[in-house]
Amino acid sequence: MIDFITLCDYIGTFAFAISGIRLASAKQFDWFGAYVIGFVTAVGGGTIRDLMLNATPFWMLQTSYLWVTAFALLFVIVFRNYVIRMNNTIFIFDAIGLGLFVVVGVGKSLEFGFPMWVAICMGTITGSAGGMMRDVFINEEPLVFRKDIYALACVVGGIVYWFCLLADLSTTFTQLFAATSVILVRILAVKYHISLPVLKEDSE
Amino acid sequence: MIDFITLCDYIGTFAFAISGIRLASAKQFDWFGAYVIGFVTAVGGGTIRDLMLNATPFWMLQTSYLWVTAFALLFVIVFRNYVIRMNNTIFIFDAIGLGLFVVVGVGKSLEFGFPMWVAICMGTITGSAGGMMRDVFINEEPLVFRKDIYALACVVGGIVYWFCLLADLSTTFTQLFAATSVILVRILAVKYHISLPVLKEDSE
Amino acid sequence: MIDFITLCDYIGTFAFAISGIRLASAKQFDWFGAYVIGFVTAVGGGTIRDLMLNATPFWMLQTSYLWVTAFALLFVIVFRNYVIRMNNTIFIFDAIGLGLFVVVGVGKSLEFGFPMWVAICMGTITGSAGGMMRDVFINEEPLVFRKDIYALACVVGGIVYWFCLLADLSTTFTQLFAATSVILVRILAVKYHISLPVLKEDSE
């Protein structure tokens, strides 16, 4: 039986892949292209993190991420007329995945001996770089920096992780609180349309 | 004298570089920019592969790739009015390069001790990531996922490589069959306008 | 007290970050997004270099680059109505940074045992890849290859570095001459609107 963390990991991978597959389809990518974009969205952030930590990219160590992405593609193909009505469910999956990805990114960086501030950066990269790569490949401006607080939710999660460590909480509670904070920030930001202000320059 | 593999490698680099240089020129890049885009198109896939395998990027070990790209730039400058009529020849060169790049990518990954499925992924990345980077830099949506089967041809080549290994063929025949299958898939796809279906979502 | 090299490094990081922050703001990125783009512009080139050299990305070893970028963001926010009038000052800062980045990139590659031609490539990547990443993320065609000689100035700096080494100059003078040559090329190119020719293909 797979444990809870693994389950969340697959749920997150599934939701991230679906977001990539749907945006790629909207841009007339073929099935294989949609699959690749879905895969990049799901594993891109962790890959960048692993390259910076000088580790072998995590998805090269087990086939499951390729399979989950294949399942996501199948899901979009089969339920193409219903996917749009599942937006709320997919959003929750995406938030769960984001929370877990941040926690995994922070934890792995600490394991590799980096200080907390690097771990927070790596957590943020794990959570949001996949979405940035997706938007770059489908030739759109990155949504992660314009839509309801996304990348910043990763930073918040990293800081909660830090505080939990400072408070000497167990690893389990630290991970739980950090992931939950990411999920909460995302849900609140979307529900109440909270966005960061945009920087305007007097261009006159 | 250079051997057959090296010759195919240079032919492929040349063809890939030309595709980058031409698309960059169409976007009003200057000579140096066209050179860089040509170089990225030719060596980008192998570079991503080497970073993931934790190897030194292959082009940093010998100057030949810089020279072949310089030769491709010179070629486009000198024959600028004839290049368009050479499209068929360049296409064949490009297909030969793709076949070789896939074989090299698969082989190197196996040498580094990765399992076959990772090697197939790396062969596909070696063959198609350069083209994706080219399209990202010139700000176009990646062609490799929308034009006649391109990235998928790399996967096919990787699978043929696998079957040849399972059938205990010698390395030479394995490489030959795998490369030929990539080239054949590309030629057939272009000749008969075979494309993968596009995924459409009911956006209503 | 910080030394002269460190001061130039911070000045360059500051100027590069400002260019990223301003372009991101023009694209309606929120504050956090503008910060990230500023950071990527400033450290992106060195990060790519370090990944290729198989070194830990330099900004993961000290917090200063995050702080300088934060200061750049604050600067743009506070002086938003005046920044446009400071364009000349920012241009000089940017040129100083470019000169230093190239010198640092060349020096680090030589330290890692690579030959001079690789070091020149790495110096060029250090100086110009951050700007390319910035343009990719904000979904514009890379300016570094279309505006007054930018990436080529890095190559010139690398070649001057090489000649200085051949002439047995001390490290200090080598660095000084190489950085100065980059700065001079940039200032002359902008002042006299010198650009490389654009490659045109007869598309008829």
Folded structure, characterized:
3 copies of one chain form a homotrimer. Chain A is mainly alpha-helical. In chain A, helix 2 (31-53) packs antiparallel against helix 5 (116-137), helix 4 packs across helix 5 and helix 6 packs antiparallel against helix 7 (171-191). The N and C termini of chain A lie far apart (63 Å). Chain A contains 7 helices and no strands. The first copy, chain A, has one domain. The interface between A and C is medium-sized, with 29 and 33 residues.
The number of E-state strands of chain A comes to 0
Radius of gyration of chain A using CA atoms only: 17 Å
* Helical coverage of chain A, percent range: over 70%
Count of folded domains of chain A? 1
Shape of chain A: globular
Number of helices of chain A: 7
Order of helices and strands of chain A: HHHHHHH
The largest sheet of chain A, given as strand count, sense and whether it forms a barrel, is:
none
**In terms of quaternary structure, what is this?**
homotrimer
Distance between the termini of chain A: 63 Å
Offer a few descriptive terms.
homotrimer; 204 residues; 0% strand; 7 helices; mainly alpha
Short characterization:
Three copies of one chain form a homotrimer. The first copy, chain A, is 71% helix and 0% strand.
Element layout with pairings:
Three copies of one chain form a homotrimer.
Chain A: H1 4-26, H2 31-53, H3 64-78, H4 87-111, H5 116-137, H6 151-166, H7 171-191
